[in-house]
Write a structure and sequence with these properties.
Blueprint: E1 2-4, H1 6-13, H2 20-31, E2 35-38, H3 39-53, H4 55-68, E3 69-72, H5 77-87, H6 94-105, E4 110-112, E5 125-127
Parallel strand pairs: 1-2, 1-4, 2-3, 4-5
Helix pairs in contact: 1-2, 1-3, 3-4, 5-6
Length: about 130
């Protein structure tokens, strides 16, 4: 299983993103993996995708995620993620901290991301 970060989804959809070509190349790897994401990452992704391509494209991306990803939900996700937010003193976004918590909770070590902030997290391997 691999965690998918907003930076990957944004790069995949937004052609002018600096990582777009790399994201497209990684698409084959993503197809063969079980994918997991948090609602915070979906919101982060759709906010930017919608501002670039409109709500209909954002909605299509959401439907794709809903049909092809596990969306991790937990009653304590926000509280647990805030521990990491404090640990990194706000240098990682709260959305990023939901990724850290989800990955640790599910024993996932790989994250598909172009965000090098994840390099600060022990035990996490960024696939990009």
């Amino acid at each position: 299983m691999i965690f998918v970060d907003a930076s990957y989804l944004i790069a995949l959809i937004v052609e002018k993103d600096q990582w777009h070509n790399d994201a497209v190349k990684l698409l084959e790897k993503l197809k063969s993996e079980d994918k997991i994401i948090t609602e915070a990452m979906i919101i982060e992704s759709l906010n930017l995708i919608g501002s670039c391509h409109g709500g209909k494209v954002g909605y299509m991306v959401f439907k794709y995620i809903k049909d092809n990803f596990t969306i991790f939900k937990s009653d304590t996700l926000l509280e647990e993620s805030l521990r990491y937010y404090l640990q990194f003193d706000g240098n990682l976004s709260l959305a990023d901290c939901t990724a850290i918590h989800t990955m640790k909770e599910n024993n996932i070590h790989e994250i598909l991301s172009f965000d090098d902030d994840f390099d600060k997290v022990d035990g996490m391997v960024r696939v990009c």
